[in-house]
Design goal:
With 339 residues, this protein is α+β, with helices and mostly antiparallel strands. The protein folds into 3 domains: 2-69, Uridine Diphospho-n-acetylenolpyruvylglucosamine Reductase, domain 2, CATH 3.30.43; 74-226, Uridine Diphospho-n-acetylenolpyruvylglucosamine Reductase, domain 3 (2-Layer Sandwich); 234-338, Alpha-Beta Complex (Uridine Diphospho-n-acetylenolpyruvylglucosamine Reductase, domain 1). It contains 8 helices and 20 strands. It has a 5-stranded antiparallel sheet. The chain has a 4-stranded mixed sheet with strand order 1-2-5-3. Strand 8 (128-129) and strand 9 (132-133) form a beta hairpin. Bound molecules: flavin-adenine dinucleotide.
Length: 339
């Protein structure tokens, strides 16, 4: 457990916001978590639990203690002829874990290549991309309960996964920390999801058949061509969720806007593309000061350099107001607001 005082969090969030942490503690082993929970300047003073900082907007300096998840490790805990169960520590890089599985030819996570952040945060919003969600390969996780220091095993039902949501954003928000996540991956007779985005086109253009590796490579190439690299332009990926609306509302909208992209959901709602709504409202590529919606991807809000959290949030609220005025739809932020 390493303690620092008055530290800039700029290297620890992908928006690159220079908010200060009064105290930053790096939790480097699972055992550190229990010690931290008892430490006088630990949990009792905690204001922020930090993973890779790729899904948060720091709107102010953080008083008290910021705890950074940094413990690592991966191990196979069970194996059959067809499947392998891989337990991964919360502090492991998500993308490196995906590539580790790709290297073993284990399928399940390949469509989720190149998503920033750490493994422990992935269940929090049930990360998803290219027709696949974390929950599709999830087996269980271990959750350290801040209140009593007990470690609870949780399966998918306990986690309450849905679109960019889970129990960790709701009932268990701030109640504990995910220590590790176990994935159930497939060793043979793979089935692949290639119908979303441009995966199929990317494979065809390379003359490749779908495989764990070719899909991961294709997803990486597509993402690199479309999404700004946070190391170059600060961002947190999709800033807003795609709204899921009653089908009658979407039908009425489609009368006015026949081209509106719509995706019927199993629960009877219809998801519409937030990026399209934002583009129609005139915000795609529009820069105000140091903030703007990206020119190639209207759903990604970028920091052109030096923007503060409140500046970014003010811009986001203008986007919300425009979309609400034009379509009567309230966009919900996907990113976590801190402070
Ligand atoms: C360029 C870019 C592209 C992206 N693309 C996608 C995408 O395709 N799909 C997608 O779903 N997301 C995407 N994201 C969002 C983000 O990468 C994911 O949400 C990621 O899982 C966040 O991980 P993190 O470690 O950075 O979490 P952080 O931002 O550090 O934390 C997010 C939240 O989880 C909490 N948390 C973190 N770790 C734990 C833990 N171990 N236990 C309990 N709570 C915890 C934090 O307190 C915070 O509330 C993208 C982001 C960027 C910058």
């Amino acid at each position: 457990m390493i303690w620092e005082s008055n530290v800039s969090l700029a290297p620890y969030n992908t928006f690159g916001i220079d908010a200060k942490a009064e105290r930053l503690v790096h939790l480097e082993t699972e055992a550190d978590v229990a010690h931290y929970a008892q430490h006088p300047e630990g949990l009792r003073q905690q204001r922020l639990l930090l993973g890779g900082g790729s899904n948060m907007l720091l709107c102010a300096d953080v008083p008290g203690t910021t705890a950074r998840i940094a413990w690592k490790g991966r191990k196979v805990i069970r194996e059959t002829e067809d499947h392998v169960w891989l337990e991964v520590a919360a502090g492991e890089s998500w993308h490196e874990t995906v590539r580790f599985c790709v290297g073993k030819d284990w399928s399940g996570l390949q469509n989720l290549s190149l998503i920033p952040g750490l493994v422990g945060a992935a269940p929090v919003q049930n990360i998803g991309a290219y027709g696949v969600e974390l929950s599709d390969s999830f087996d269980c996780l271990r959750f350290f309960d801040w209140e009593n220091g007990e470690i609870h095993p949780m399966d998918a039902v306990d986690c309450g996964f849905s679109y960019r949501d889970s129990v960790f954003k709701n009932r268990l928000k701030g109640q504990g920390v995910i220590l590790s996540v176990t994935f159930r991956l497939t060793k043979r007779n793979h089935t692949f999801q290639t119908t979303y985005g441009a995966i199929q086109e990317e494979l065809s253009s390379r003359g490749l058949q779908p495989s764990v590796e070719s899909i991961s490579d294709a997803v990486m190439a597509i993402r690199q061509s479309k999404l700004p690299d946070p190391k170059v332009l600060g961002n947190s990926g999709s800033f807003f969720k795609n709204p899921a609306l009653p089908s009658a509302q979407v039908s009425a909208l489609a009368q006015r806007y026949p081209e509106i992209p719509q995706y019927p959901q199993a629960n009877g709602t219809v998801k519409v593309a937030a990026g399209w709504l934002i583009e129609q409202a005139g915000w795609k590529g529009k820069r105000v000061g140091n903030v703007g919606m990206h020119a190639r991807q209207a759903l990604v809000l970028v920091n052109y350099g030096g923007a503060s959290g409140p500046e970014i949030w003010a811009y986001a609220q203008h986007v919300q107001a425009s979309v609400s005025e034009l379509f009567g739809i309230d966009l919900e932020a996907e990113v976590n607001l801190i402070g």
